[in-house]
Amino acid sequence: MTVSTDTADREIKARHRALWASGDYPSVADVIAPLGSRLVDAAGIRAGEAVLDVAAGAGNVAIPAARTGANVIATDLTPELLDVGRHLAAPEHLDITWQTADVEALPMPNAAFDVVTSCVGVMFAPFHQRGADEIARVCRSGGRIGLINWTPTGFIGELFTVMKPYAPAPPPGASAPVLWGDPDHVRTLFGTTITDAEFATEKLVVDRFETGAEFRDFFKDTYGPTIAAFRNIAANRGRVAELDAAMAGLADRYLAGGVMEWEYSLMTAHVR
Fold first, then answer.
1. Which letter does DSSP use for residue 264 in this model?
2. Which of 40, 135, 195, 271 is the least buried, fewest Cβ under 10 Å from its Cβ?
3. pLDDT single digits (tens) 51-60
4. Over pLDDT 70: what percentage of the chain?
5. Which residues have a Cβ under 8 Å from the Cβ of 205 and sit 6 or more positions away?
């Protein structure tokens, strides 16, 4: 089990927690809700299986996984998001344990789970190799890993490219989140720990926004990375105007009749 006590690492994690606690990420999760059930189906989650969902947010995967009858643990670095998930799941009395934990240092024993999942979650942990190593470590031999990540070339990947010049600098040694949407990168991360890896590029249809400006304003209010970018340049009106225009313009380019397609990579594999 990997446990970091490094002061700098603790500071990085504290900033990361604050980032995702800002705004209203559960509203964003509502927009992308279909991805949760898609991943549960792709991973073949069944009743009685032990499932770990890492960087689970408000339970986008954990809740539909528990509806199958699986025994689910949902972990996230940000307890505020888990609180929302706990509230959402309560009326159904689902078998979900909500636990604050860092995907780069999971407090679980080796080979403890039949299935480990993450839906646009682990990709935002700064040190990719740590996250991949932990996911593989806690999944039993013959167990399954299922991941959904935004691709570098899709809408969200382009959004991060647009925001990058305005955003706070990432921690030293951190990798770009959307690299998790590149199959070659993911194969390299997991190396020989997995077998039968399959990748599919799919698109989420989003019909929430009529204009690019509406999308931009929604993300400015709700999405932690966007909030952080605008806070970083708040003192410079010109820069704020630039980012406003760039985000709205990007979204307008993807909008057609009030519909957008957000590309993601779906990966399933077995652990050796």
1. E
2. 195
3. 999 999 999 9
4. 98
5. 259, 260, 261
| pLDDT tier, 4 (very low <50, low <70, confident <90, very high otherwise) | very low
262: its two tokens: 């957000």
Average pLDDT for the chain: 97
User: Closest by alpha carbon to 190, among 115, 67, 272, 94?
Assistant: 272
Across the beta sheet with 139-150, the strand order is 96-100, 71-76, 50-53, 113-119, 139-150, 260-271, 194-206
The secondary element (H helix, E strand) that includes residue 67 is helix 62-67
What mean pLDDT is predicted for residues 233-245? 98
CA distance 258 to 206: 8
Please tell me the predicted confidence (pLDDT) of residue 2.
42
* Furthest CA-CA distance within the chain: 56
- CB burial of residue 160 (10 Å; 0-12, 13-18, 19+): middle
What residue segments make up the domains of the chain, in order of their start?
A: 7-206+262-271
Could you tell me whether strands 194-206 and 71-76 are parallel, antiparallel, or unpaired per DSSP bridges? Answer: unpaired
For residue 6, the model assigns a pLDDT of: 79
Give the residue from 58, 83, 43 showing the smallest Cα distance to 270: 43
